[in-house]
Design goal:
This protein is mainly α. It contains 8 helices and no strands.
Length: 202
Amino acid sequence: VDRERALKLITSSANAGVDLAMKKLSSMYAKGDGVERDIKKAEEWQGRLVIELSDTAEESRSEDDAFEFLKEAKEFAELAIAAEDFEMADTNCTTMFDVAQRLSFGSLEKSVFGKVKTVLKKYTRTNPRLQEGLTYMWQACRMMLEVAFKAGISEKIFEWSKKANALRTVIPFMSGPEIGNELMRLCGRMASECTESGNLNG
């Protein structure tokens, strides 16, 4: 296979807005598959894909399209973190969290978490969309708290800790044990970090 020609064809398709081509280029640059490894380029192409998927989901209002967006947005956040692009990672994880929250609790017009116990009969463990949405919410929290702790950015630790704590009140009632256990481990780390840093308000 002529790799140079293949790269030109894939890049041309990606520039034309073909989702699969953008995904392929991002993967190639992230892994160094047929090209020199370049995390920034991988992030750039994954970002372009996420924008396309966001536009599609916004236009279609389809849950399937929204969850496809969330899947690729998670990968975009991971690439942004690897590229040490904290601002982009934060923006993307915030969007992930908000979209997943709306998908999981969209019919709760007011407070997302305030009336959880009153809707337990409606949102049960058998609701796969709720499970999926909660998963993306805690993944966004996990990624951004890891970055915020590592970078020592106190305002972001506080912001994402609040979201994680809100999830902690919901997940034991409305999700399976895997998500709940992972979130409890995350909250345990938050407590340890706060204690070690002397910040007892965290």
